[in-house]
Amino acid sequence: VTVTQVESPPPPAPGDASPGTHWLERLDGVLAPIITVLLAFLISGVVVYMTTRDLGDTLETYRAIFRGSGLSWFFELGSHDIGVPFSDASVWFPWNTDDIASLAAANLQQTLILWTALVLVGLAVAFAFRCGLFNIGGQGQYLAGTTAAILVATELPDLVDLPRALLIVASILAGMLAGALVAGIAGFLKGTVGAHEVITTIMLNWIVIWVASYLFGIGGPFQTGESDALPSSADVPEKAKLPVFWGDPLLQGLHIGLFVALVSLVVYAFLLNRTTLGYEVRAVGFNPDAARYGGISVARNYFLAMAISGVFAGLAGSLDALGWQFRLDVTQIQGSTIGFTGIAVALLGRNTAVGVGLAALLFAALETGTASRNLDPEIFPPDLASSLAIIIQGLVVLFVGAQFVILLLLRRARTRAAGATST
Amino acid sequence: VRRLGNRLPHGWRAVAWIGVLVGVAAALSALPPVTIRSPVVPVVIGLFAFTIGLGSWIRGERRIGGYAMAAGVIGILIGYLATRSSVGNLETVVVWGALFGAALRYATPLLFASLGGLFSERSGVVNIGLEGMMLTGAFFAIWGADVAGHWALGLLIGILAGGAFGLLHAFFSVTLRADQIVGGTAINLIALGLTTYLFIKIYGDEGTPTGISAIPNVSIGFFDEIPGIGGFLDDVFGDLNLMIWAGFVLVLAVWVVVFKTPIGLRIRSVGEHPRAADTVGINVYATRYGAVTLSGMLAAAGGAYLSLGFVETFDQNMTAGRGFIALAALIFGSWRPFGAAAACLLFGFSSALAAALQTYSTSASTLFEAMPYALTLVAVAGVIGRSIPPAAVGKPYVKQ
To answer: Which H helix or E strand runs over B23?
Structure first.
């Protein structure tokens, strides 16, 4: 046996988004996630089939989840009332403009609210990935953001009388700062003493969870819930709530955080691809030793990458606090898994801005579509469906982890096809 | 005897350990049964411990010296707080027998999962899926006991289910060379979704039925007859669950297997330098498969104790982060069986204390739950002695 000192090929580094030379190879980057998702839905279909014992019902379940997600709103082709006063003028339109009456519109608003948060948590994971760091702490950073935003939004009006915009901005900034602080600890420890970020972020997650439980739990300093059965924070005052631009504000309409998420996607892409900071972060992500040799401070970039990640997650938390949840209770603190969905989003989106946006839409639709108030209980029990959504998420993460196998199979199939045509 | 003597700490290390003990004494001086009511006594003893720790720290015994300094400071804090509290409260909270008994109950699920993680990580595979594997074990054990009618079968089914998840993790991280942390995250999600799904599907809103055959407790009567500390021993060890005793045996067994047998040597070498291990004919893949599957089984056993031995019901996401505490204990214990066991006991004791502290304040006891995580964060940050993982952990191996 000859032993050669060959470096093992790098693991399918999630941050590896190097553009392939051939357009077919670039296509793989799109195909692999699609295959991954199809595979996950297929296997989950087995679970649904075992519940419903009928193939037609299985398909019907997926269709109901799709309807529940509100994405069907885009497919309501036909003539719709365009709302011209004193007339019933209707025009052919690809979606239902009469959105007050449309259930699909209400569902879509919820999907997009969730999309906002998932994009940002996904970016939090993705940004760290590009620096070669695995940020499992999205959960804690998100929660730190929610906590800080709620504390500022509920406590600050007692101290100073701020105009609405200023109060909202102050709350959001507090959330971003809290997220950056929590993530920054992990980045700092990684940079200075080399403590593995996976371990530190997991520990920080639970520290934040218990500190938040302490703050808003029974007997906690900021607990103001009516009963001890469900202790929670005080409600965010009306003037600190984010303005709603689509739908009924009383029925969870879509808040302006959506635009913050869109801008964040652009900022993410710009920051990584068009700035010195982004260049350094990616250089460290590709090869920290080479980056150090090239004069880049690895420790500084670890800290900055984590802190920026934390800003994204903290932003997600504060937008949810001010635009959607309006309060924080203990079951929510301990039961949320949004940070882990963020990992799924970043992995499936291959850490690119466009990918994260699309992956977040998939998971937001999945989660909204299986929520108990959206899914038709006649077709599939909603309490089962939300666990089904978690299974699908898990399967996606599992297959994304092994995505290079899918890529390998694709490549092999292509070379075989090429060989067949050349002979 | 001489070899044993060599193994005992000596020199400044021994001094530092004495400092740790003095620090503990500072706290104990103000607690029952001694209950000195003047804050001066614990402060003086604590300062003495700190001085010893500082002395040995300067002389080069950084790790244990650091422990001694920490023990001194914490001893002063606890001692001072105790003198501020009423004697009545102290005597309801600090019942040593009950506290240690509860600590063992809380520590056991962590211990099984932690030792499971030890096998996996020692073989070079990161396992953050411990949480999911525990949860799987917890559900399938109680389901198995319900269906099969006997706790032993339930335990077996739970362990097998955890093993299946271990096998899945091994397949993705060893054969497919997927990122191990991604795989572990996936396992946590799938296990959470699957157990919740099955739990609702099978048991609906009513929850698991009462009267399921549970893992029995072992009653030992003779402790009472020992003079002096008999009552204390009876409180702690008199009526422990079978799985707790199994846990004691397991620690010893894992230590023997990992450090005293060829199998253990193989596991460790595969985790430190797989290429070298491969060169001398060790099957790296098979070793890792075995270790990761075993880790799933052990974690599931911990979950099974939780559902089938401790609370005797199952609830959605009932492990609630215990898998992560087990991982923390493994790191805190520097990937060693006795170290991990000690860390589990410490974390178990902190849980027991958190429960007891509710006498004072519910919110303080909630905050106390964060302690294991904070301690581990401090440990990996290297403030008092770094924890260093196996060299090849997290890296997939490609056979040449």
So the answer is: helix B12-29
Structure tokens at A17: 């988004």
Task: Please report where in the chains the tokens 């941050």 appear, as a residue.
Answer: A15
User: Which of A3, A210, A232, A329 is the best mutation test for B, with the most CBs of B within 10 A?
Assistant: A210
A163: region left, alpha or beta (phi > 0 left; psi from -120 to 50 alpha):
beta
What is the tens place of the pLDDT at every residue in A187-226?
999 988 888 888 899 889 999 999 999 998 887 888 876 6
Q: Using CB atoms and an 8 Å cut-off, which of residues 269-298 of chain B contact chain A? A: 275, 279
Cβ separation B374–A195 shorter than 8 A: no
DSSP B309-365: IIISS--TTTTTTHHHHHHHHHHHTTT-HHHHHHHHHHHHHHHHHHHHGGGT-HHHH
Taking CB atoms and an 8 Å limit, are B192 and A390 in contact across chains?
Answer: yes
Whether the CB of A14 is below 8 Å from some CB of chain B: the reply is: yes
Dump pLDDT digits (tens) for B297-332. 999 999 999 998 888 888 888 888 889 889 888 888
List, as ranges, residues 207-266 from B with C-beta within 8 Å of A. none
* pLDDT tens, position by position, A293-332: 989 999 999 999 999 999 999 999 999 999 988 888 888 8
pTM strictly above 0.90: no
| Spatial separation of the C-alpha atoms in residues B316 and B256, rounded to whole Å | 36
Query: What is d(CA A237, CA B168) in angstroms, rounded to the nearest whole number?
Result: 48
Query: Chain A partners of B366 at a C-beta cutoff of 8 Å?
Result: 210, 213-214, 217-218, 220
Longest Cα–Cα distance in chain A: 88
User: Which of A341 and B6 is assigned the larger pLDDT?
Assistant: A341
Neighbours of A175 (CB within 10 A): 33
- Encode pLDDT of B253-284 as tens digits: 999 999 999 999 999 999 888 888 888 888 99
Determine the average pLDDT of the residues in B220-233.
Answer: 73
Listed as ranges, residues in chain A with pLDDT below 50 are 1-20, 100
For chain B, the average pLDDT equals 85
What confidence score (pLDDT) does residue A226 get? 61
Those residues whose C-beta lies under 8 Å from the C-beta of residue A110, and which sit 6 or more positions away, are A70, A252, A368, A371, A374
Cis upstream peptide for B33 (omega within 30°)? yes
Is the Cβ pair B197, A207 closer than 8 Å? Answer: no
Contacting residues for B374 by C-beta, under 8 A, at least 6 apart: A203, A207
Nearest alpha carbon to residue B143 among B189, B206, B198 = B198
For residue B367, pLDDT over 50 is answered with yes
**Chain B CB within 8 Å of residue A221 CB:** yes
Question: Which amino acid is it at B135?
Answer: L
What span, in angstroms and rounded, lies between the C-alpha atoms of A301 and B242?
51
Residue of A274, A403, A316, A270 whose CA lies nearest to A125: A316
Query: With helix as H, strand as E and coil as C, how does A226-237 read?
Result: CCCCCCECCCCC
In this complex, the residue of A3, A213, A397 whose CB is nearest that of residue B366 is A213
